[in-house]
Amino acid sequence: MHFEVPKSKKLREFASEYVMIVISIATALALEHVVQTQHHKHLGEEAAERMQAELRATLDEVAKVSAHNKAQIVLNDKLREAVLKDILDKVPDKTAMLNFFNASKGEFSISVQVPSYKHEAWDVAVANQSASWMKAEELQRYSSAYSAIRDSQQLSTVGMNFLSGSDYLRTMAELQMGTSNPRDLYQMLSRMSFSYQQINNSLRELKEQLDKAVKPL
Hints:
6 helices; 78% helix
């Protein structure tokens, strides 16, 4: 910033020039502050719009995934209950397995789905500090939503890990070879039901947080 040294030797003129310089500096600083404030506000609003779009897409995906998993839970539980009934009724293994194939129509498989858990908009807002230019209440709402996304992702991983991939592949191979038995099948179906339920429980909690953050269209 350029400063102009007063040239007048008279006290009154010097004071007048000095006051004008001070006013000019104060005005320039005030204008700069206004411009910076508006710029930061604009960046904060842009970040909020990106997060709204991302969270809304995640919310839509959560609804679709939850519906799919819920349908799989219903189907899996019906098969599990049927297998358990045959075991308790001491139905011969071959008959019990035939009953299972008929009930599943020969199309039995695991089909657990999880959302993509996107958080790029939040990461960018934190990296470029635009998140700090939001209102405190708004920032807290988004922070809670993305924290819920991370928690749900971890819980979904736990749910998937509970279903041993090697055990599932072994049981499926035995089903195809006709060497499986109702007891191993029932255990696998029980693990599948738990995995589905664990993931959907985490998605239900995630939906509650996202509903608080996403504004209605």
